[in-house]
What does this fold into?
Amino acid sequence: MEPKALVEAALFVADRPLSLARLAQVLNLSEEAVGRLIQALAEEYAAPDRGLEIVQQGGGYVLQVKGHLAEAVRPFAPGQDIPEPVLRTLAVIVYRGPILQSEVVRLRGQRAYSHVRELVERGFVRAEEEGPTKRLSVTKALLSYFGVETAEELRALLESPPG
It folds into this structure.
């Protein structure tokens, strides 16, 4: 089997970012080799006639639709359902972020720890160590998902009526 095709297929089927270490382990390749293969694939996808891109996100790599095409193909996407409690935790981070994880837990309860972990794994939230807790903020991936460039634009979008 062609190693580059294996890396591409792994990125395609994964539902969260894949690290070099994880790809190397599962595909029985060195991290350096995986890095070179990802770079080669990223260069191929960078062509203007390609609809996908490889981006670094949440400590790994994802294969995703290019941002400027996302809205046009959204009707074809399978449900990307995020459970409502996790969405509520994300809303707190969007509206109050950057925010300390301890404050999110105070507002949302102990389950917020697992919600934050899921949001970080999905690449939607960045968690940076700050003393005994973490500072949480939204990522470019989340902004791209909603087709905006700043957290302020995202807040405005979420506050606007549907339609």
Q: What stands out?
A: The longest strand covers residues 52-57. The mean pLDDT is 88. The domain at 3-76 is CATH 1.10.10.10 (Arc Repressor Mutant, subunit A). The chain has nine helices and five strands.
